[in-house]
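Fig. S4 source data, part A: sequence.
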Amino acid sequence: MLENIKKILNEDQDPKAIEKIVSKLDNLLMKNEEIGYIAVQKKPAITILPDSIVVTNKRIILCKPKNLGLSIEFVDYDWDDIAGSFVKEGIFGSNFTFNTKTNLTHTIDYLPKNQARKLYTFAKEQIDLLKNSSNNSNNSYAEEIIEEVATEEVTHFAEIVPVVQEINTYEEPINQFVSTDKKLSELSQEELFDKLQNYKKLLDNGLILQGEYDTLKKEVLSYM
């Protein structure tokens, strides 16, 4: 048995089936790609040529034996193409199903329950990692746009700031400086970026205080 697959054989998989799949995958794995888990189909009757599903740190790979087991057909999906996954447990085993962002659905049935649960856990971890990475990237991008706004770009304050009749007696809240035609939850990502830029322009030109800017900025970022 190959040393690098011993860690995978912890849920009563057939060692010969696992070793065969790993040997076939050896030339298909990308740089820095590692196998996280392999589940093998086990039907109530004797399964001569079971289907398998492999999850790595980069993708899901479906393995289907062909030509009486002499070859294997591989179908793979990157994790950023996966919309979600779930497990349905039955009397004779479990079904592991995943959906793609293009509305494709794939199911491997008759998986041992422990193997299906392990697949689901691994898949959820990978999907959550991608979501967190995407959210962090969006926040970083928003911060970069705000910092790149130059003070001299502010030209028509009449479009941003309403007319104040009594400047010496002004005590209205900062919200009066900002258009409230739409709620933040109704704005697109582009409109939210524009709103952040306007807040930065107001701060740079001394029209709002740093504390007020920080509060407005935090509120907008929560919707991005």
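Fig. S4 source data, part B ends here. Confidence is low (pLDDT under 50) at residues 163-180.
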